Amino acid sequence: MKTTDTPPPPAGTVEARPVVKKLDTPSGKDRSGGVLNVFSHGVLVIWSVLVVLPLLWAVMTSFKDDKSILTTPWALPDRLHFENWSRAWTQAHMSDYFLNTILVVAGSLIGTLLLGSMAAYVLARFEFPGNRFIYFLFVGGMSFPVILALVPLFYVMNNLGLLNTIHGLILVYIAYSLPFTVFFLTSFFKTLPTSVAEAAIIDGASHTRTFFQVMLPMAKPGLISVGIFNFLGQWNQYLLPTVLNTDPDKKVLTQGLVQLASSQGYKGDWSGLFAGLVMAMLPVLGAYIIFQRQVVAGLTAGALK
Amino acid sequence: MQHGKYRFIVGFLVVPLAMYTIFVIWPFIQSIYYSFTDWTGLSPDFKMVGFGNYSRLLDDDTFWKSLQHSVLLALLLPVVVLGLALFFSFMLNVGGRRRKGAAIAGVQGSGFYKIVYFFPQVLSIAIVALLFQFAYNPNSGLINSALDGVGLGSVQPEWLGDPDLALWCVMAVLVWSQVGFFVVLFSAGMASIPKDFYEAALLDGASRVTTFFRITLPLLWDTVQSGWVYMGILALGAESFAVVQIITVGPGGPDGSTSVLTLLVYQKAFRDGQAGYATTIGVALLIVTLIFSAVVMRLGRRERLEF
């Protein structure tokens, strides 16, 4: 269980010497003009289309009736079949899946941020025997394949009576989010100035009080970054609920949809399925467009462990 | 004071550490132990079989096939994804026509491209997989009807149903969902490269291709290397599991043509009642992952010395 990948230095750390001494083209003029620009724009546009088209196609299809989905996949809907959406929301249990997902993610996110920042704070700011060991124990968890632990975990959960429960899922999400959260927040707490916390201690505040009233508010930017990272990871989680949560009533969005696709597919309710798919896509896409900067900052700060 | 300090440390660490130990560390250690047993997972009884599972692994064709697919994904996916992402992000940040005053600039509308390219990254891989399952549908899917529409009606591949194509379809989905993230990541890296370097290159009349290979890539190498490891682990891990399990028939594809190690662990443990053997495959997966990371780190280091 060793950490295999060392944390990267900040992107583009510049310690290299300038390497521009012997570049091979002496002509000096703007050689990279016209043709290449048309070409590069073309390629960029093509990729945009490749990204957007399937998404738009799904939205469009969710408003069509079953027959035209199967016969004319590219045609616009004859009219907007909103009933697909209401059918998916109620009969196909999308509302339940949403509710379950919101419950699980809300619980896990709060738990992850609270427990993660507590552990990270102690590991970053206090010297005690075993500090390094505990830190590497946490961080080491980032690099091993989750599926390996899942087989025994299934039976651990079973024995604890946590299988197929919302709170069991929350506990597991928190545990598997801790490695990265602790890693990220430990380095973040190290960058915060010590003087404010020391002043609070001298004024007679307890360590606990100092943490909650002084350090945690100061750590807000870090908490937001790691919070966004965890939110998306937990909202989009598929493997953990698939294995640990097989009760149809407790399904989260991703597994609910997959389950719908395999069962509804036979019933032929393609339009309802597309409506459900779009329903699951739109909230995150919408949130991303609104909070675009924060999401990108959070994910890029986060994902490269 | 000192006493209070230790009480505080223990108080803050005990819950996170306990949860992490129970749900992550302990199962992980157990799985290595179970890989030496004949545990079915269904009954509490099992006995030690030594290296029995491991020797069974060597004779298991499904295992070798899955291993081959996993390794192929881990080797090819980073090349394609990082290659595309480097090209796009270079275009977006450096490749633009020079405007007055700025030494370097991205193409016009680069902000818009960056937002759009990132879309797939915020979607769950399960949702992405479902979407592509529909797109690949041979009769009514997006892709074949598009082929039909442009007059290629005779070319109607079965996509996921074709053993020769299915794995490539899986790979395409993973590429689609990952490129945008690296475009944004590399863009951030490129933004931190000092402008002087580009100005000097410009004065020397370097072309864009030269600029890329002599300046951008070497200075971005650390990020590329971490991206390489990240992408490889992703290809070996949960993402490829989700795509294969959701979209390919079987699941595991026609004739096992898309089976990957993660899927095999899942199937052996939760479908076939061979939990002990499943953990053995899991250990093999762990070894492959460790070797992959070690090799990339090693090769990357040598590469860096060149300039």
UniProtKB/TrEMBL annotation, chain A:
Record family assignment = Belongs to the binding-protein-dependent transport system permease family.
Topology versus the membrane, per the UniProt entry?
Multi-pass membrane protein
- Identify the residues that the record assigns to the ABC transmembrane type-1 domain, covering every copy: 98-291
Which keywords belong to this entry?
Cell membrane, Membrane, Transmembrane, Transmembrane helix, Transport
Instruction: Tell me the Pfam families matching this sequence.
Output: BPD_transp_1
Lipoprotein in keyword set: no
Q: Which regions span the lipid bilayer?
A: 38-59, 97-121, 133-156, 168-189, 270-291
Q: Which GO terms describe its cellular component?
A: plasma membrane
- Which organism is the protein's source? Streptomyces liangshanensis
Q: What lineage is this protein's organism placed in?
A: Bacteria, Bacillati, Actinomycetota, Actinomycetes, Kitasatosporales
By what name is this protein known? Carbohydrate ABC transporter permease
Q: What is its main location?
A: membrane
Q: Where in the cell is it found?
A: Cell membrane
* Any one of the GO BP annotations: transmembrane transport
Q: Please verify whether the record's keywords include tRNA processing.
A: no
UniProtKB/TrEMBL annotation, chain B:
Query: CDD domains, from UniProt?
Result: TM_PBP2
| GO cellular component, as recorded | plasma membrane
Task: List all membrane-crossing ranges.
Answer: 7-29, 71-94, 115-136, 165-186, 228-247, 275-297
Give the InterPro entries listed for this entry. Answer: ABC_transporter_permease, MetI-like, MetI-like_sf
- GO BP field: transmembrane transport
Q: How does it sit in the membrane?
A: Multi-pass membrane protein
Q: Which residues form the ABC transmembrane type-1 domain?
A: 67-296
Q: Which family does it belong to?
A: Belongs to the binding-protein-dependent transport system permease family.
User: Which protein is depicted?
Assistant: Sugar ABC transporter permease
UniProt organism field: Streptomyces liangshanensis
